[in-house]
Write a structure and sequence with these properties.
The chain is of the alpha+beta class. Helices cover 40% and strands 19% of the residues. The N and C termini lie far apart (45 Å).
């Protein structure tokens, strides 16, 4: 819970009954023993009113709900961190992440399935005007709000600092984007002392947005959690492309994919989002960069999952590019045995 009560942001066009209901429940956040009931009431109030809302009202109501949900469950960890110095309480940070998500969504949809000039970067991966425009806009917003922030982005680079660092992947899944496939996303992470604390997975075309912090993750304002799958034979596996695995990694992945129940490809960051909502049980990748993974960590962990390198180590800025994300520790341990062969 925040150290002091902060008023929720004004929402001028939501139905008065909805705003009143949400705001009244927001005030109850001062009673810790009621947190679980408050969060349930918030979600109930939102969904009760949702059918009568316009699209714009729905977006505004959901954004307010996100702030309130996290405020009622936020702990005081931020007060002992570099984030306190930057006035980055959970409420402030999630309100700002919602703003970044809205901006990224609008820009991505503006360019999606239009005629695009596609350039090749040094590693032969594609880049479009959408990638550059989204990252440029998010950097502009972040630096306006936090002028001294460190920022790392796929297109413009940067370095992780010892204080607060924002990590941006403007379009995770550019190949899907240029092919007109809707499973690409925008990733934004907030690192405190080089550790990923907040994460956002924004899927523009599908209108889905996951946020993660601490032991909480939500999808469009509703709490989500991983499945209870513990055995590979029952697991649903996702990976971006089997071609990302080379040499011994290719053999290990092939062995693993034969041991699971279902394997699906082409998901990029969406696989991790589905894992956080319990629809996928296992995601395995290789050849990733820091901007590909940092935002995923708080979402997966917040939903109750496990995410490490193939060696079982925590992911940091020096990680080897391998990632395994699982619904449960038992499934994680079994999958690691295959990947270490």
């Amino acid at each position: 819970m925040c150290a002091e009560l902060v008023q929720p942001p004004p929402v001028s066009h939501i139905q008065p009954s909805l705003e009143q209901a949400l705001t009244e429940r927001f005030r109850l956040q001062q009673a810790p023993r009621r947190h679980r009931r408050i969060r349930n009431d918030l979600a109930h109030a939102y969904h009760q009113e949702m059918p009568i809302l316009s699209f714009r009202e729905h977006e505004q109501a959901r954004n307010l709900l996100v702030v309130l949900l996290f405020a009622t469950g936020a702990d005081k960890a931020w007060q002992c961190s570099a984030m306190k110095e930057s006035n980055m309480s959970p409420m402030v940070t999630f309100t700002f992440l919602e703003l970044l998500g809205n901006e990224a969504r609008a820009l991505a949809l503006k360019h999606f399935r239009t005629k695009l000039d596609i350039a090749a970067k040094a590693d032969d991966s594609p880049v479009t005007v959408a990638d550059r425009e989204i990252e440029r806009r998010l950097r502009e917003l972040i630096l306006t709000q936090y002028p001294t922030a460190n920022i790392v982005g796929e297109e413009e680079g940067g370095e992780i600092g010892d204080g607060v660092t924002w990590v941006i992947d403007p379009i995770d899944g550019t190949r899907s984007f240029v092919a007109g496939l809707p499973l690409f996303g925008t990733l934004v992470a907030v690192l405190d002392k080089r550790i990923a604390v907040y994460g956002m997975i924004e899927i523009p075309v599908l209108g889905e947005r996951w946020l993660g912090y601490g032991n909480r993750a939500i999808l469009n304002g509703v709490p989500c959690k991983v499945s209870s799958c513990e055995q590979l034979r029952d697991a649903r596996l996702c990976a971006t492309d089997p071609q990302i695995f080379v040499g011994a990694a290719s053999a290990a992945f092939s062995s693993l994919s034969r041991a699971v129940s279902i394997s699906r490809f082409g998901t990029d960051c969406y696989g991790y989002a589905l894992l956080a909502s319990g629809h996928v049980d296992l995601v395995v990748e290789a050849g990733l960069e820091i901007y590909d993974v940092m935002a995923l960590i708080p979402v997966v962990l917040g939903a109750g999952g496990v995410i490490t390198t193939w060696s079982g180590h925590a992911i940091d800025e020096r990680f080897d590019g391998t990632v395994i994300a699982c619904a449960t520790r038992a499934l994680h341990a079994e999958a690691l045995r295959f990947l270490r062969q």
